[in-house]
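From: lab user (bench 3)
To: helpdesk
Subject: output format question, protein + cytidine-5'-monophosphate

Hello, I'm new to running complex predictions and I'm not sure whether the block I got back is the full result or only part of it. Here's what I submitted:
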Amino acid sequence: MSPIIIALDFSQPEKALNFITQLGQHRCRVKVGKELFTQAGPAFVEKLVNQGFEVFLDLKYHDIPNTVAKACQAAGELGVWMLNVHALGGREMLIAAHETVSNYPQPPLLIAVTILTSLDDADLYAMGLHGTIENNVLRLARLAHACQLDGVVCSPQEISIIRQEIGATFNLVTPGIRPEGSEKNDQKRIMTPHEALTTGANYLVIGRPITAAPNPLQALLAIEQSIID
Ligand code: C5P
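Helpdesk reply: Thanks, we reran it on our side. This is the complete output you should expect:
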């Protein structure tokens, strides 16, 4: 399967289902985030899983270890392929999440969010996190790796430094992807699908370049082609 994960950023489950059905079942994986999950609930995720989609449940859990472990268990029971937690939840929380998911015969991939890409150095300083974004991202990526998580979500700019530091088996899941010539929208630091993969990303989270395209299937096929070339 391709490394593309389509961000299903739709407010209504019917729209999301309609859209994804047009693309064909096994073309790519899908990401369900907070908006769609809050609207449509776990039943919708189960429906996608039962229809054969590999689902990245992007709920970024961040709470005390016991609560996060229980949430990860609930996500695992839905049969999701990937889920995520905030590395800032700390070592004990990350270990609890890892231990919970590793009990599944086919454990979902457990990915950490390091520093949200909406934050800058001044925001970090105001929160008491000293050092640059890059220092903090790397420190949290190392922590996630030490707690045996499967990878991190990172911006295209962080791919190569994390890849160099942490090695080849750590999964890097990267949003901020824009095919050549497409709208940047609100993404500031972007790479093309081809650049991101050659820099070391494993999975590309792509939303609007596909979901808002006049012909989404054609947009997806063009991205797939650009990756092969
Ligand atoms: O439409 P677009 O391709 O920008 O969508 C990117 C997706 O990745 C959205 O669902 C967005 O919430 C998510 N995301 C992001 N940047 C992050 C983490 C997640 O764009 N740092």
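A quick orientation on your result: The two ends are 17 Å apart (CA to CA). Let us know if anything else is unclear.
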